[in-house]
Amino acid sequence: MHSLLIKSIAICLLLCRLSMSGVYNTAFISEKKGLPAFVEAGSVIDQNMRSWEAKLIERTDDSEETKPAVEIVTDEQLDAGYLDEWFNGSVLVGDSLSAGFSGYVQNERYLKHPCLGDMKIVSASALTLKKAMECEQKLRNRELKYRTRYMTICEVIEATETNRLFINLGVSDVRWYTPEQFIEAYDTLIEIVKTQYPDIEIYIHSIVPMIESYAHSVDVTAEMNIEINNWLKEYCEEKGYGYIEISDPVRDENGYLARDCSASDYRFHLNKKGKELWVRSLREAARQAYYDGKWSPSGLQ
Hints:
Elements: H1 2-21, H2 23-32, H3 42-63, H4 75-79, E1 91-94, H5 96-110, E2 120-123, H6 129-136, E3 144-146, E4 149-151, H7 153-160, E5 164-168, H8 179-196, E6 201-205, H9 212-217, H10 222-239, E7 242-244, H11 272-291
Parallel strand pairs: 1-2, 1-5, 5-6, 6-7
Antiparallel strand pairs: 3-4
Helix pairs in contact: 1-3, 6-8, 8-10
């Protein structure tokens, strides 16, 4: 495609020159003598075209940055764990959703299935966004438990020496916060983290929807969940944080948590299918980071 475009431009430029240099006349005379048009002029045209093409290639190579080829990663490769090394050294902190997810990930690893590299998952069952923020502000006791010790998010970062942090908090906070208050709370939490660890990569999970019957019992609608996630996604884009979309894959047609993705408590926890979709969403982040040139997987070099 690149070569064809160059030749097309070269021909157009050459024809303009030929119209002023009399080459057309030579071709016309050849045709009158019973020879095919441009026989005599052919060598001139070919030489000029090669000359102009060489100049265009030279200019293009000088002006455009050469980008390395990126190998396409198929969904099958993604699901097989081709990019899971991206998660090595990373940490996911969260609530009871994350605690259940940790059990699933550990079981997959026990079965020798690749599952998010050696990512560590540190959780607290009753942890909310509000509580996590207050823990960092030293307004309440630590709740995250890592290696028998209770810690704040910042202390987990220090203990694990991670440079990539995934946060999954807020499903219970939806009922207490407006979207503005929700984002303000998240921003306060992350600013504390970034103040102590300015180079750490931050990835925030979307808020999982609730089962419809439970959502109605706590006065949370599907629209409220969707609105907060829209605000959260926009916030991540504005701040340069990653956004992990786990809510949309598990929604039903009404916007609530689908029954076939829900755990037996029928609240907002996920069953095996829901957790498989969660793993896929995280792997999509790894694929996007690869396509964006942020890292190079050793298995595809």
